[in-house]
Write a structure and sequence with these properties.
By secondary structure, the chain is an all-alpha fold. The chain is built from 18 helices and no strands.
Length: about 500
């Protein structure tokens, strides 16, 4: 592919990935308005988020293998059109059930789209220098997508209405669709690829059970029978899935993808980072809107500095260092910087503290997290045989999605329980209930943020111990006819 066409192809791929990532958060700010408009109960409103994450997280591995089977561009364009249709359906929802169904359908097509996008990127940019630049931009999209979603959600909700948080996907998807037809190579269909039906059923059922269990833990508690059953079933199903993959003739997830030391380090790092990050985004949004009383638009604008920091971290720090230093030299300091940002944020109180704590914490978080994430993306998809690029990309996206689901459920449960204990301990005659409620809420957020910081420190430890490559691998590292060596000395 000509050089200019490759970079325009990156624009198309990045547009699609931005749409998928920001859709995880753009609805958050619009949710109160949608709940009121469609008469959703407090217990049911979570399904606007959960229906998407369930389908997305549960079907990613299957989507990755379908991309290898039928061609990545074909899967990419089908995913784009399907996502646009589901978004239109959700925007036109006449009741809560229709909205929940549309969100689930978005997740289904996102599970096709996301691994196709990442594997197209990995196979399009094989030169190490160009690959670093491309992955720097892609890493910035992943890191900044959540914050951009919050900003876009605030603007659209305040000046139009919540339905436009779904409608906005339609023009993005159509531009990416026509760009894909014009710029992306058709992509080969690998003749040795087969759809592992037992593996697909086991893997998808296991992921769905885990994601559903963690999602329900937020509203039911961790001791609820359904939650425990779902989590246990998910672990068992995934264990059986792993065993089957070692015996399947053409596995859904080749063991070479998950046995490679560098990719294992990247997958675990991304899982732990997103466990910490998704909950913190939610806490900051509620802090700014419910405690400080900011509007959705003002809240969205407040995230802009972090978005800028993420772009700088990916394109100006990680992309420049990726070809010059070992990957963990970028990942570990980046995660430590991000953890330091959470320490700053964890000290907020009920009084306004945007300039003194939230802003500096966001800047540290953006620079550090984006540097680590961009490097992890390159590790996760490099050095893999082209026929398995879809599976590797799907595994990376699965780690990100499952981490976000676990983090949201875990950190929200911690925040809620700490808030309840604070209210009980400090309630009494003559106490200003409104002020007490605000203090209790912020205290719950702060404690949960400390836990998020712990997740980033564990991620830094994992990256420092497991990732030992001298340089990030490229697609050229994987010779198509030579079995990939497995480094088992973890």
């Amino acid at each position: 592919m000509a050089d200019n066409r490759r970079w325009w192809a990156l624009v198309v791929i990045a547009l699609a990935q931005l749409m998928v990532v920001l859709d995880m958060t753009i609805v958050n700010i619009a949710l109160p308005s949608a709940q009121s408009d469609l008469n959703m109960s407090d217990g049911n409103r979570q399904w606007v988020i959960t229906a998407y994450t369930l389908a997305f997280g549960g079907l990613l591995l299957l989507g990755g293998r379908i991309a290898d089977l039928v061609g990545r561009r074909n899967t990419f364009v089908i995913g784009l059109l399907g996502f646009a249709f589901a978004s239109a359906l959700g925007g036109a929802a006449a009741n809560s059930g229709m909205l929940f169904g549309a969100r689930a359908l978005q997740g289904v097509f996102a599970a096709l789209l996301a691994p196709s996008a990442l594997s197209l990127l990995a196979t399009t940019f094989t030169d190490q220098k160009d690959r670093s630049k491309a992955f720097g931009i892609f890493g910035a999209i992943i890191g900044a997508g959540a914050a951009i979603g919050l900003l876009a959600g605030g603007v659209l909700t305040q000046y139009l209405n919540w339905r436009w948080c779904l409608y906005v996907n339609i023009p993005i998807a159509l531009v990416a669709f026509f760009g894909a037809l014009a710029l992306l190579a058709p992509g080969e269909r690998h003749p040795d690829a087969r759809l592992d039906v037992p593996g697909a059923l086991l893997g998808s059922a296991g992921m769905l059970s885990l994601v559903y269990g963690f999602s329900e833990a937020e509203s039911r508690s961790w001791h609820d029978g359904l939650v425990l059953t779902l989590l246990a079933a998910g672990v068992v199903l995934l264990a059986v899935f792993g065993l089957w993959q070692t015996r399947a003739r053409v596995p859904l997830l080749p063991m070479s993808v998950v046995k490679d030391r560098q990719r294992i380090g990247a997958f675990l790092t991304v899982l732990l980072v997103t466990i910490g990050m998704f909950g913190v985004f939610l806490f900051l949004t509620y802090y700014l809107q419910t405690v400080l009383g900011w509007s959705p638009l003002k809240t969205g604008v407040a995230y802009l500095p972090m978005t800028v920091a993420m772009v700088v971290g990916s394109t100006q720090i990680a992309a420049r260092l990726l070809t010059r230093v070992p990957p963990r030299v970028v990942i570990v300091p980046g995660l430590l910087l991000a953890a330091g940002g959470l320490v700053v944020i964890a000290g907020i109180g009920v009084e306004p503290a945007y300039a003194s704590r939230v802003l500096p914490g966001m800047l540290m978080l953006g620079l550090g997290m984006s540097s680590a994430m961009m490097t992890s993306v390159s590790l996760a998809t490099g050095g893999v045989a082209p026929r398995d690029a879809g599976a590797a990309s799907a595994t990376f996206n699965t780690a990100q999605q499952v981490g976000g689901s676990i983090g949201t459920a875990l950190l929200n449960t911690i925040a809620a329980s700490v808030t309840a204990r604070y209210l009980t301990a400090h309630a009494g005659p003559g106490v200003d209930r409104r002020l007490l409620a605000a203090k209790a809420t912020v205290h719950g957020f702060n404690v949960a943020t400390w836990w998020a910081m712990g997740a980033l420190l564990v991620a830094a430890l994992v990256a420092g111990v497991v990732v030992n490559a001298d340089r990030a691998p490229t697609m050229q590292s994987a010779a198509p006819k030579t079995p990939e060596p497995v480094d088992s000395t973890l």
